[in-house]
Amino acid sequence: MVTNTHADVQVSDLNFFYGAVQALHGITIDIPEKQVTALIGPSGCGKSTFLRTLNRMNDIIVGTRAEGRVLVRGANIYAPGTDVAALRRRVGMVFQKSNPFPKSIFDNVAYGPRLFGVRGRNELTEIVEKSLVRAGLWAEVKDRLPASAMALSGGQQQRLCIARALAVGPEILLMDEPASALDPRSTAHIEDLIGELRENYTIVIVTHNMQQAARVSDITAFFYEGHIIETGPTQTMFTTPTQKQTEDYITGRFG
Amino acid sequence: MNKRNLLDNLGLWTFRIIAYSVVGAVAYILLDIVVKGAPSIHWDFLSSPPRKSGAAGGIFPAILGTVYLTSGAMLVAFPLGMASAIYLSEYARQGRFTRAIRLAIITLSGVPSIVFGLFGLGLFVLFFGFGASILSGCLTLACMILPTIIVASEEALRAVPQYLREGSLALGAGPWQTIRKNVLPYAIPGMVTGSILGIGRAAGETAPILLTAAAFYLPRLPKSALDPCMALPYHLYVLATQHPSADQVRPMQYGTAFTLVAIVLFFNVGAILLRAHFRKKYQW
Amino acid sequence: MGLEPDAKVEEAGGEHPPALRATPFEGGLVGALRAIPFAGGYFRIAGASERGARLFFAACASTSMLIVLLIFLFLFKEAVPFVSKPGLSDLAGTRWVPVSFQHELFGILPLVLGSLLVTLLASVLAIPFGVGAAIYIAELARPAEREFLKPCIEMLAAIPSVVLGFFGLVVLAPLVKAVFHLSTGLTALSGAILLALMAAPTIISIAEDAIRSVPRSYREASLAMGATHMQTVWKVTTPAALSGIVAAVMLGMGRVVGETMAVLMVTGNAAMMTLSPFDSVRTMTATIAAEMGEVTFGSTHYQALFWVGITLLFATFILNMVAQRVLRKYQRS
């Protein structure tokens, strides 16, 4: 199932600090293009922190510091002079708790494009529709685009957030436990969506749900106390892990 | 067990009486002003200038002066205070610069109003040569209410949930784009209502304008910002303490006090009601 | 392309393939999504306006510092000639006779004493009422009661000081005169009562915050040991909030020291050395307000009034700083 295409994101020897506390130790991993990479591990292991280093969202937390290299398509995103806004446009993010803006459905999706100077109504409408279609939400909301996004159900809100992220045309999508607050049906919906998005986007997903990782991902990385213990094709990881700790975690013996 | 109950009840009632006696004092003062002031209020009183050095006529120039001074002060302090709050809430990182700003704001909020008067006299009236004028008064009052507006605005900004900022930044928006499009729209109501409390303070303050702007009696209305003006609180002060027959002009004094209290409470109650309204609207 | 941000990128050029700069990226995207004009022009403009915005807001925030500096600067600027003639030591005198045909005296001690006396008297009145009301509102009142009490207290804070002074002059002073059989009601006591009313809202709101921020677990531990609600309030909650309450009282006192109009109108304004609440006194604030209107700008009297202002400024500044330190300490713990 896994064919080794070239790496979209190459992380080498990444250390990350919250003040004096080191949260990530020497992370080295290649994230392949147009595949789903799942990050698993017990809570507090650094998987979410790592995810947020990939679009530098940790920058907004006071007192954080990153050392090492993160190459996105060959460019080190921690090099001085990097345009962080441009980076975040290429590396989209979906949060654990769906965070629609208190605006209309249309304005939520159009928020990003408008930032980048898209003004024409027709153009915006086209982008909004395409994004909602891709996020699998179009059929449900096409008749009520001017309605408030806050009125949508939890699962719909999360897909709206995905549509919003797609609307700025990212290459990479980061998902931080996107289904953890959703009911099983909405979760299934999101998982199907990830399967489809995989055709066009490189996806990195953090999940605490082992079955979910097994279902949706091509590659799995196991985090433990700020280190990557093991990385490999998901099937191999779940059937024949090489590390004892990985096996213990996967079989539910700790965590 | 009974003795314990008795002691408990005694304590409860002591605290209750203390709390309600403060409320009682407020009610008594307001009632006194309203009951004795309301009869003086009629159209003529509000719309005509004083005659016989305040013993007759109305208080129109004083009302107008207070409106000028207050709105001028807000015009300066509102934008400045809101922008300062945006910096402190959205941009500032811990460091010496931020600490110095916060120290300055705390210091400003503790400076006595009469000292603001001296400062306004030294800087605006004399050094800049604005003279005793509406302009000097506005600028002095603006400095005085600046900390109130900054603190209220910062609180409103911090009430906007962090995920709105994160969501916007994650789409590639810059900090200012994020603030403008996804923070300010939800914070502005709170910033404005909080700042309205500053209006009340500016309208009621006497000591600073005593030294920078106010005149007891002017034969004509001010024509420019460089003219001095009358003001309600100063008018009340002079009528009550400097008037040769202060006892006989009691109705005028109460009428002035009532008008001033009405203006100040209008803004305060308005702000409190607006705040309640917006709290209901934006429940995060 | 000669703009500043580009130069920066060029420097780090080795690590920056074109992808992160101006060219549209090649994602597997449909036409519409690609149509968004990327980086090129837009980001540079955005970058400039972002930096501009940050600078603008920082500059606005700095004005507070500027104002504080200017306050100190201009108070001293107007006051400083006094140092060479008649000399600072004159300020330490016990008589304030600024207008005289023979010899003018600028001893500010009676004014300092007047402020001190009124402030202490006001605190004696305001502390039990302010702290008591704060305890009641924070711990004992039902929610509906609290919703009623808090706006009432806010209302008290909103009443202009000149109106309180007026009320003191026409209602309170005659009352004080009658009750204590005095020749005049315009005394330190009348002023202190008004000032206590003005300090109360400050004390109540800050002390209430302090009491409410006592961890719930303290209360629960006390109640679990069989203490009654009132015992818990008295023996656990209030002591735990003590430093916050102290800070509240100090901030209230800061307000009292600096208050002008009410004391000007009701304390009688006799500049004398007294410690009796039934005497007339003259505070520092009232002196400035009453005399500044009549002095010649630049005269010795004028400069002396600025020295009074400086004294006042430092007194409130120190009170405030100490109170803030106490507040921060309890907020940290």
What do these coordinates show?
- The complex is a heterotrimer of chains A (255), B (284) and C (333).
- Chain A has ten helices and ten strands.
- Chain A is an alpha/beta fold and 255 residues long.
- Chain A has a six-stranded mixed beta sheet with strand order 6-7-8-3-9-10, with helices on both faces.
- Chain B is mainly alpha-helical and 284 residues long.
- Chain B has two domains: 2-38; 41-281, MetI-like fold (Orthogonal Bundle), CATH 1.10.3720.10.
- Chain B has a two-stranded antiparallel ribbon with strand order 1-2.
- In chain B, a hairpin with a 4-residue loop joins strand 1 and strand 2 (56-57).
- Chain C has two domains: 4-79, no CATH class; 96-332, MetI-like fold, CATH 1.10.3720.10.
- Chain C has a two-stranded antiparallel ribbon.
- Chains in contact: A-B, A-C, B-C.
- At the B-C interface, helix 1, helix 3, helix 4, helix 5 and helix 6 of B face helix 3, helix 4, helix 5, helix 6 and helix 7 of C.
Quick structural summary:
The complex is a heterotrimer of chains A (255), B (284) and C (333). With 255 residues, chain A is α/β, with parallel strands linked by helices.
Record the SSE blueprint.
The complex is a heterotrimer of chains A (255), B (284) and C (333).
Chain A: E1 7-18, E2 21-32, E3 36-40, H1 47-53, E4 64-72, E5 75-76, H2 84-90, E6 91-94, H3 105-115, H4 121-134, H5 138-141, H6 154-166, E7 172-176, H7 184-197, E8 202-206, H8 210-216, E9 219-224, E10 227-233, H9 234-239, H10 244-250
Chain B: H1 2-37, H2 43-47, E1 50-51, E2 56-57, H3 60-91, H4 96-110, H5 113-127, H6 134-158, H7 162-170, H8 175-204, H9 207-212, H10 232-241, H11 250-281
Antiparallel strand pairs in B: 1-2
Helix pairs in contact in B: 1-11, 3-6, 3-8, 3-10, 4-6, 5-6, 6-8, 7-8, 8-11, 10-11
Chain C: H1 4-11, H2 31-34, H3 40-79, E1 96-97, E2 105-106, H4 109-140, H5 143-158, H6 161-180, H7 188-212, H8 216-224, H9 229-240, H10 242-258, H11 261-266, H12 284-291, H13 300-332
Antiparallel strand pairs in C: 1-2
Helix pairs in contact in C: 3-13, 4-7, 4-10, 5-7, 6-7, 7-10, 8-9, 10-13, 12-13
